[in-house]
Structure formats: structure tokens, C-alpha cells
Amino acid sequence: MRKKILHKAKFIVKVESIKPSSDKLWVSDSPRLKIKTISVLDNRTNMFWTENQIKERGIEFFLDTSDLKESLNWNLNGDSSKYQFKWLQSGKEITEGVAYIFD
């Protein structure tokens, strides 16, 4: 997706995925959960959601990228054709990604 279009996203959701060998706390508490929401930017108001807002919308944890797509579309938009996801950086323990949700 072109950068000039990304500013039109309704929501920008940053996530991290923990590699199986990681000692991260939230993975050891729930080993089935592979992806966690780090932040949600509401581009319409230019405000970041609080942790409570993320939990209330049910988009805190995901099993895999399919679950991520389905959950974000169901809870934020309702139209999977207006969803774009890409992995960004991969580190020793964490891989970061970002999802764009459009109107």
C-alpha cells in the first residue's frame, strides 16, 4: 500500500508477535496467545486509545494473523476489503507489525 494513502486510515493498530523461545511475561501467562496489541491510533481524532479501550473492544490479544484480521475487522470496521497489514521489524524475540483500517 502506498504511503500517501496510509494517512487516510481510520485506525492504525500496532502489534507485536513474540517468538516461541521468548521469556516475555504475557506469553508465559497465556502461551496460546501469539500477537498483542501495542497501540491503537484513532486517526480521526489523532488520539491513542488507552489499554482499557483496547480491552473493551476485544482487540488486546490474537492467536495468529487470521485471528488478528478477523477480530480487527469485526470490532473496528466490519469490511475486510478495507484492511491492510504488514510486518515491520523482526528482532531476536519480537516481531512488530501494523494494521491499517480504512472507512
Structure characterization notes:
The protein has 103 residues and is an alpha+beta fold. The protein has a domain at 1-14 and 48-96. The protein is built from 4 helices and 6 strands, in the order αβαββαβαββ. It has helices at 3-6, 25-29, 51-56, 65-77, and strands at residues 11-18, 35-42, 47-48, 61-62, 83-90, 94-101. Strands 1, 2, 3, 4, 5 and 6 form a 6-stranded antiparallel beta sheet that branches. The model has no long low-confidence stretch (mean pLDDT 82).
Topology readout:
Elements: H1 3-6, E1 11-18, H2 25-29, E2 35-42, E3 47-48, H3 51-56, E4 61-62, H4 65-77, E5 83-90, E6 94-101
Antiparallel strand pairs: 1-2, 1-6, 2-3, 2-4, 5-6
Question: How would you briefly describe this protein structure?
Answer:
This protein has 4 helices and 6 strands; from the N terminus they run αβαββαβαββ. It is of the alpha+beta class.
- Order of SSEs, N→C? HEHEEHEHEE
What is the overall shape? globular
Instruction: Name the helicity range.
Output: 25-40%
Rg over CA atoms: 13 Å
Number of H/I helices = 4
Beta-strand level of the residues, as a percent range? 25-35%
